[in-house]
Each structure stands twice: as C-alpha cells, then as structure tokens.
Amino acid sequence: MTTKNKKRVLIFIPEFSKLTERFILREVEQLVKNNVLDITVFSLQKGTAQISTEVKSKVVYKKLGLIDILMSLHFYFLNPLKILTIFKLILNNKNRGFISTLYLFIKSLGYATVIKKYHPDIIYSHFMSESSTMAY
Description:
Strand 1, helix 1 and strand 2 (38-46) form a beta-alpha-beta unit. The chain has helices at residues 22-34, 53-56, 66-71, 73-78, 80-91, 98-116, 130-135, and strands at 8-16, 38-46, 59-61, 122-125.
C-alpha cells in the first residue's frame, strides 16, 4: 500500500519512549510493522528506552518555541468564536486554575500550529493528561 492511500496517524505523547511505558512502544512497533497506516510519533521529549530503527524514523521530538506560539495566533483571527468555544470547554475543567488553563490553552494552539504541518487524519494521544487535552 502506498503512503498516499494510508491514513495519516499522529501519535501525540509527552515522552517517547519511556521504560515504564513499553506497551506504547510495542503498539507503535506493531503499527509500523503492519504498514497499513502512515504513522508519526510526535513527542514532547525523548525518553531513555531504546527504539528500533524502523520506529526511530517515524518519531519527531519537538518542544514549542516562541515563534510557534506567535504563529498560532492566526487560529484566533481565522475563527475567534470556535477558539473561544474551545477555551470555554478547557476552562470547564475544575481541576486546574485559570492561569494554568490559559497556559495549557496557549500551548494547545502552539502545538496545533506545529501538528498541522503533518496533515494527520487522526491524532491519537495516550492517557488523560495535558497531551490528550492539547490533542483535543
């Protein structure tokens, strides 16, 4: 199957690959081996566990820079109502304060700008954490 016909799946994860989360590495290895999906692992930081050459070629490590955050402002100007609606959804999480929520929201827009370049059909994120909220 050619890459053009495959669904592009971006796996968004805080740290790849962690020794304590080997199951994620095994999942990714199997997905890459099956060669049915076009897999990209997008990780915020590099873990300490060894990964195979096949998987390594599918991994991108990226932390946000100021430019990424500034570039994300275009989302607000393109569709302010949608952005405000999303912000209200994130704000409904009563487990974090306003400043923490605002920071997470800004990071989310920054990563949306970066991830958009990969044109994923599906974004998959492990765990109910900041990364899954940002992927949302």
